[in-house]
Automatic annotation (TrEMBL), chains A, B:
Residues 133-327 form the ATP-grasp domain. Pfam families: Dala_Dala_lig_C, Dala_Dala_lig_N. Belongs to the D-alanine--D-alanine ligase family. This is D-alanine--D-alanine ligase. It comes from Candidatus Sulfurimonas marisnigri. The lineage of its organism: Bacteria, Pseudomonadati, Campylobacterota, Epsilonproteobacteria, Campylobacterales. Cell wall formation. One of its GO terms (cellular component) is cytoplasm. One of its GO terms (molecular function) is ATP binding.
Length: 345, 345
């Protein structure tokens, strides 16, 4: 099948998007793949398949490749005397800003481009951790208690130490730190505020059980991945996550009871349904005293969480053939006509 | 001052956006105004000032005008041998879909265009009435109890009659009906489901006191309009609202106590702050037993609620000079460099 992967973006996660894209090139062999790179200035480039390696980007070689502009149904490559259309199904693989904040979703919707990825609403509720809490409250999903801080007033923390501090709108552990006592607080807050003007504080649960579950909706039903218990150190810092984004080997199924697996799936459905249609997402859960808590929603997981799926290629194909349609309003001029008529014009 | 107004859109509120734009042409005389029309196919046209009248659009005459494409910092007009840039500050005046659902916000942010209007997050929380309820819950703002229905299961209503039925994602009273008894329910639901797959049901409070308050943030403080008690029949249907969108005469200040005015303003601030920066919004409140309830947020009110402001031109100028900056992430290739180095490449 034909699939175009969009990656890069003006995001702190720009590099891991490149790594993700390179990983998918390997995982989706046999597909008719194209790659479109969005650089930090929001210029789009068509990347030759043979050039899909990290140095093409780090050395700026991509700038010699064909520029594209977004257009109805896809992207257009204009040369002196002709223009070539790139259409079909796209996969939004821009992690973080641009890709996960709703921008690419809005662009794709506006230009009627078919894509795998979260829609605008879904992006807002997964990108900003504060709004993920609102989603949890509204849908009866448990999540850890939290406090929100803005850069102006950042001292009174009521949650007892240790706490984990996160920029509200970044993924991949960027700017995240664990603060074990008051003396470390300022440093932790500074690290987070470097990346965002809003920060959330949660209790840090040492040794908590963590489980990841991915899935997507196709043909009216949710297709789940296996459940993984991720190997972890205290938490993954950016460098480790970076390596994590290039994962391509099948993960091991977590050794959990059917009851817990079913609880995790129920929570996944509560998150997903009527919001994330069109996307393959990974939910990261905590389990405390047998209760499932949502930690984070990854609406564009690193390398699409390929390592969690029994048959990743079939999964992507299923999803690509079951994308939601956005019904565009039909415009008419009934009222203007009737008013013009009343005025005798 | 120079200001470009974007209007139209592929929306059920396409016509009222045209009316809004024509009204603003009159209200912002003295400004260096331009008008860009977005038609239902999402093609942009530069409309000559003299042609800013309803029939230009209803008769399709706009199609003869210059086409524009969106580009960094604004719009570009390409002719055979040259291209002309349209930059400066834009005002997003597309009501409903496209304008209020986050699409135009995302486009403008992506292309680094300065604009008056709600940002992506703010759009999501005002466009979908279900998410407005989540906002209210999270921020301690009272709102009427409600039920959500999806097109599949639409019979069990627990709220006692009379109720008001609204499509979740439309403004301007489109698809809204008041249902006084069970016998009218199916018709009310059908009307709403014609426009949206999600519908909300609220109690209909006959004769409830309603107050509208608009405002915006500039130079770090909120600038409020007067409070108006809108004249109303049971509720405004689309045709009446349509006329309402061309309002240009100063409204009368509602005869209310300082205490109530201050309560309304406090609620406005709870809605606005750290979400609607960059936009001039109108909040419609109900008052029941002295308590303020948020009914609706209009993030792009009809004709920008010009009739509520003491000096509308000064207000728009203040806002245009105080737009929020989106800090774009600086991309670097530190990790790729360090990994390449470690590999000896």
């Amino acid at each position: 099948m034909k699939l175009t992967i969009l990656f890069g973006g003006a995001s702190f996660e720009h590099e891991i998007s490149i790594v993700s894209a390179i990983t998918l090139k390997g995982k989706l062999s046999g597909f008719d793949l194209s790659f479109i790179f969005c650089d930090q200035d929001h210029t789009f480039y068509l990347i030759e398949l043979a050039k899909m390696k990290a140095t093409t980007f780090s050395k700026g070689e991509y700038k010699k490749m064909h520029k594209l502009s977004i257009s109805k149904g896809g992207f257009t490559e204009k040369s002196m005397f002709s223009s070539k259309e790139h259409t079909g199904v796209f996969l939004n693989l821009i992690h973080g800003a641009d890709g996960e904040d709703g921008s690419i979703a809005a662009l794709f919707d506006f230009y009627a481009i078919k894509y795998i990825g979260p829609r605008i609403d879904a992006s807002v509720f997964s990108y900003d951790k504060r709004y993920t809490k609102w989603l949890c409250n509204a849908r009866g999903i448990k999540s850890l208690k939290h406090e929100e801080l803005s850069s102006i007033e950042h001292d009174n923390i009521k949650i007892p130490y240790p706490v984990i501090i996160k920029p509200a709108r970044l993924g991949s552990s960027i700017g995240v730190s664990i603060v074990k006592e008051e003396g470390e607080l300022d440093y932790g807050l500074d690290s987070a505020f470097e990346f965002d003007s809003s920060v959330i504080v949660e209790p840090f649960l040492e040794g908590v059980k963590e489980y990841n579950l991915a899935g997507f909706m196709a043909n009216g039903e949710i297709h789940f991945s296996i459940v993984e218990e991720p190997h972890k150190e205290e938490f993954l810092d950016f460098e480790k996550k970076y390596m994590d984004f290039s994962r391509s080997e099948r993960a091991l199924k977590a050794d959990i009871s059917d009851e817990l697996e079913s609880k995790l799936k129920k929570n996944f459905v509560k998150v997903y349904k009527n919001l994330f249609e069109g996307a393959l997402i990974r939910c990261d859960f905590f389990v405390v005293d047998g209760e499932v808590y949502l930690n984070e929603i990854n609406p564009i997981p690193g390398s699409m969480a390929n390592y969690l799926f029994e048959d990743f290629k079939v999964s992507i194909e299923l999803l690509a053939n079951s994308l939601p349609h956005t019904k565009r309003a039909k415009v008419n001029y009934d009222y203007i006509h009737s008013i013009s008529k009343a005025k005798g014009k």
